[in-house]
Specification:
With 137 residues, this protein is α+β, with helices and mostly antiparallel strands. It has one domain. The chain is built from three helices and eight strands. The strands form two sheets. Strands 3-4-5-6-7-8 form a six-stranded antiparallel sheet, covered by helices on one side.
């Protein structure tokens, strides 16, 4: 379970705001980039997989891009996933044509992106809520 006390670090230099310290410490990796994103003018900010339980992990990738991923107006490309028992139960991402959105199981809804730090906070809150609703701690 993600604990509320991890929401306290100012990471303005990297992500532009307050974020989950423990999660970001676990999720921050050296800058390596995929070939396709290099040609998008992308700078990787976070790319990491973290095992949370024997059957569950979180995978996060956030890049700063030169051009917004239409229809978004911000300069970030991201993919955050929570996988339990081999199934992606939560996912936040943005893709060309769809914009910012999140998946909860089979349901998809738009997501009001503001900053990468808020994205991480919202994702952590959804993981905690999902775990609570499904009897996981």
């Amino acid at each position: 379970m993600l604990h509320p006390s991890i929401i306290t670090v100012n990471l303005a230099g990297r992500l532009g705001g307050v974020a989950h310290r423990t999660v970001l410490e676990l999720l921050t990796t050296p800058f390596d980039c995929w070939y396709v994103l290099q040609h998008m003018g992308a700078v990787p900010l976070v790319r990491r997989r973290v095992v949370l339980a024997k059957d569950a992990f979180v995978e996060v990738a956030i890049w700063r891009v030169d051009e917004p991923v239409s229809p978004a107006r911000h300069h970030f490309k991201y993919r955050l996933a929570y996988v339990v028992g081999g199934e992606c139960v939560l996912r936040y991402d943005n893709e060309r044509g769809k914009g910012d959105h999140r998946h909860n199981g089979a349901e998809e809804a738009s997501y009001p992106f503001s900053t990468p730090a808020q994205l991480m906070a919202d994702f952590a809150t959804d993981i905690e809520r999902w775990n609570d609703e499904h009897g996981r701690s």
